[in-house]
Amino acid sequence: MASAVVTRFAPSPTGYLHVGGARTALFSWLLARHHGGDGRFLLRIEDTDLARSTEQATLQLLEDLRWLGLHWDNEQLVYQSKRSHVYNAIIDSLISRGLAYKAYDTPGELAEMRKAAEREKRSFIYRRREIGDEQLRRHESEGRPHVVRFATPVKDYRFDDAVLGPGQGVAADQVQDFVIRKSDGMPTYHFAVVVDDAEMGVTHILRGQEHLLNTVNHIALQEALSYPRPVYGHLPIIMNLDGSKMSKRDRDKKIRDAVKLYISKSKKSPSDVAAAASLGSSRLEGWIKDSKQQLDISEQSALTHVIGLKESDLPEILVHDFRKNGYLPEALLNFLALLGWNPGGDRERMTMDEMVQLFSIAGIGKSNAKFDRAKLLAFNTEAAAAATPQRLVAAMKDYLSINPDSPLNRASDEQLGKILEMKKGFRLLREVDESARFLFAADDQLQYDADAIEKVLRKNDRHGATVLQDVRGILSALSDWSTPSIEHAINTYVEQKQLGLGKVAQPLRVAVSGTTISPPIFQSLEFLGRASTLRRIDRCVALVPD
Ligand code: GLU
C-alpha cells in the first residue's frame, strides 16, 4: 500500500553535513514521523557531480545523520551515480519524442552568447538553435562533445509553495532549455532529482529556499514525463545574528582573517606558515587570496594549531563541528527545529517525540531564521542538566571518539561519570574535557601557569607555598582518602589558622591542576589519589621562587 506521506533528504555528498542541510533533513524526517505508520523518510545520495562527490564524504554524511538520530526508511540507499542507465533510457525517449535534444555549443560559443545578452542588457536565456542535418552529422562523426537539453515548453510556470504561498515561479519569457545530461554523460541535478522523486514516490519536498526557482525546471520535466507534482515547501534562509547569511565559508573567513593577522604580526611568510601546517604553499596562498576557497577539516585544524586559534574560537557550521565541541544531539535538534518552525505559542523546549507530535508544514514561517548561538548554548546546558548520568557518559564517549587527542580517552566509564558529576552545570562537553585534563596528565608533565604561581603561591612572603607545605603534612597523614575526609581535614586546618577557605583551596588548586580554575577541589583530590596529589604539591612548592 502506498504511504500517505513520503519525504526525502537528498544531499550532495561533498563532506560533513552543514547545519542548514541538517535542518532540511530534520524537517523532512519530522513530517514523515508525524504521519506515523503512513509516513516514510527516504535518503538519496545525489552524487552525479563526479568531481566533487566522494565515498568518504558520503560516509561522513551518514555518520552525521546517525549521530542526530535521523534514521531513514529505505534499506538500500539510492546513489544517483549508479543509476545512469535509468536516466539515459528516459533521456533517449525524450530525444526520440522531440522533447529534448543534443546541443553542441562549445564553451566559447556559450560565453559569446552570454556576452551578447549582457551587451544588450537582457538576461541570457538559452533556447534551441537549429543546426542543419549535415552539420549535425558532422558533429556526430567527429564525436564532438555535447550536452542534452530539455526543450522546455515556453509558457508561464506557476506553483503553490506550501511555505511561501501561491504564485511562485516564472513567466514564459524566463523559460529556457536547461541541460539534463552533461557532456560527461551524467544527468544534471535537475533531471535526476525529478526522476528519482517520482520513482521513489516522494509526496512532499522540503528544501532550502535556494532551490525555489529550480522548481520551475522540475515542474516542466514532471509535465513532460507525466509524473505527479509533489508538494513543495521551501524553507527560510538561516542567518547569522549580524544579518549575514550563514555560510559554510564562515569558518574559513575567521581562520583567514586570523592567518593574515598572524602573518603580519609574526613577520613570517605565507610559505613558512604553510610549511608549519604541512600545506602546499600555493594551496595556502590561493586560499588566502580567494574568499571562495575552503580548506577541509584536517587542513583547517593543522592551520589553526599553527596560528594558535582554538576550536572553540571558531563558529560551528557543520554538524561535525557541533559534535566535536561537545553539543548533545538532542539540544542541537531542538534548536534546529526552531529555525523557521513555530510549534505554537511560545513553546521552545521539546523532546523529539513532542516535536514529532507537533510538527506541521503550516507551522513553518516565511521569514529568515536567526542562528542565535547563545540560545543554542543555553539549550545544551539545559539538556545536559536534564540528562541521566548514563546518557552523559555515552555522550562523553562519543565526544572523545572524535577528539582522540584528549587524555580523557584513557578514562574508564566510572571515571567519566565522576568527572561529569563534578562539572555539573557545564555548558559543553568540551568544557568538561578541558577542565579535567589535568587529572590525566603525568605528575611530572603538568604545566604550571606562571601568573598563578606568582599570585597564589609566592606573593606575601610565599604564604601560599607555606600553606601548601602544611597541607601536605595533613594530607599525607589522612587515614581515609575520600572527599568528605579531605574536606574535613582542610576545614579543620582553615579554622585553626583562621584563614579563609580560599587561602588554602587556591594554593592546592594551583598545585594539582596548574591553574586557578578546576572542578571542585576536594573531589578532584579524591579522584587524583593521594600519591599524585603529594607528588604534585612537592613539585609545585619546588617551583615557587623565593
Ligand atoms: N542535492 C541537492 C542539494 O544538496 C538536493 C536539493 C533538493 O532537495 O532537491 O542541495
Parts with pLDDT < 50 across at least 5 consecutive residues? none
Report the CATH architecture of the largest domain: 3-Layer(aba) Sandwich
Output the number of helix runs. 23
- Terminal-residue CA separation: 84 Å
CATH homologous group name of the largest domain? HUPs
What molecules are bound to this protein?
A: glutamic acid
Supply Rg.
31 Å
Instruction: Give the biggest sheet.
Output: 3 strands, parallel
Give the fraction of residues assigned to helices.
40-55%
CATH C-level class of the largest domain is Alpha Beta
**Which class do the helix and strand fractions yield?**
mainly alpha
CATH fold descriptor of the largest domain: Rossmann fold
Strand percent estimate: 5-15%
Average pLDDT works out at: 95
Shape: elongated
- What's the total count of β strands? 12
Give a quick set of tags describing it:
546 residues; mainly alpha; Rossmann fold; 434 Repressor (Amino-terminal Domain); Glutamyl-tRNA Synthetase, domain 2; 4 domains; 3-stranded antiparallel β-sheet; 23 helices; 51% helix; 10% strand; elongated; binds glutamic acid
